[in-house]
Amino acid sequence: MAGPPSSRPGWFAVPAPVRELFKLFPLATLPPESLPERSPEPSSSSSRRARPRLYVFARTWEDANNGRPSFNPQCLKWQTFLRIAGVDVDLVPSNNHASPSGALPFLLPPTTTTTTTTTTTTTTTPTSSSPEKESAKPTPASKTTSTIPLTGAKIHRYAQDHATTATSPDAPPSRTEAYEALLSQSLRPAWLYALYLHPSNTPLLKTLYLPPSPILHLPALHALRDAAASEILKTTRSPSISPPQLLADAADALRALSTLLAGDEWFFGRPDPGLFDAEVFAYTWPILDQEFGWAAAAEDSFALAEALAGFDNLVSHRRRLYERCWPEAIAAAH
């Protein structure tokens, strides 16, 4: 004979207070929040861009709005080349997490709007005085087409296709490859050490790359330095990092670039600056920028700026390209 049902709740019974709480949900359904301004628009966005947008590392929105040179060499390279080509862009401060490729910079071309015409047929009801009629009325409709973010060589192609000023054709790869290797394998490791690993420049590194939250400073600092050290070791193929050797290699690279430039205005004897000029400028500009925030010379035992300053033609090339690409800054300074 079956006993009376148990009054004790089962294992999966929800306590009464919790049940009452669940009855209150959802309290409200909030509208979706828009993406931050530093993020690219979703493909379904109906907003229109009249000018290309270049997403870069920048200190402030003011710097970006004024088109000031980015503090990141990779961003500055493409920012400079777009200016060489006369392609006006809007700069947007961003970070690697907002980039579709995982790295800055990337370029969003302007949105395109196409107008199509559709024909609407209207039928009138027949009457005793007029027979049934059909009339066709054209109806214009516009459609905004989103664009795909461009990186690397695609930015190069976009700048060439939309150039408004004369640009020199790229030098043959057989001439440029060795010198590009000097930048990536000798000058860049020294740059990474100076900014990311040199203790005297820690305050500068925090200003440029670390999040505002003090809680996140230490883990973010360790992550940045680990990544920089890993890249230096991978590039130099050395078991350990030797600052004197990095500085010596950078000085040798600068000497080779100085010899290549010789007495010409632009590299490879071109009548106008090209992509390689922008690549060199992307390092020479921040290295010698007195407002960049580098440690004082008395505190800096890694004299990368001093090594560069010893090559007068590279210093002149830096000044010449800045005056050409940032005339508004020169005018404002006077």
UniProtKB/TrEMBL annotation:
Region of interest called Disordered, as start-end residue ranges on this chain: 30-51, 99-152
A Pfam entry, by short name: GST_N_4
GO (cellular component) term, any one: SAM complex
Metaxin glutathione S-transferase domain location: 250-320
Residue ranges constituting the Thioredoxin-like fold domain according to the UniProt record: 73-110
The protein's name in its UniProt record: Mitochondrial outer membrane protein (Sam35)
Low complexity bias spans: 109-130
One of the protein's GO biological processes: mitochondrion organization
PANTHER family: METAXIN RELATED, OUTER MEMBRANE PROTEIN (SAM35), PUTATIVE (AFU_ORTHOLOGUE AFUA_1G13180)-RELATED
InterPro entries noted in UniProt: Metaxin_GST, Mito_Protein_Transport_Metaxin, Thioredoxin-like_fold
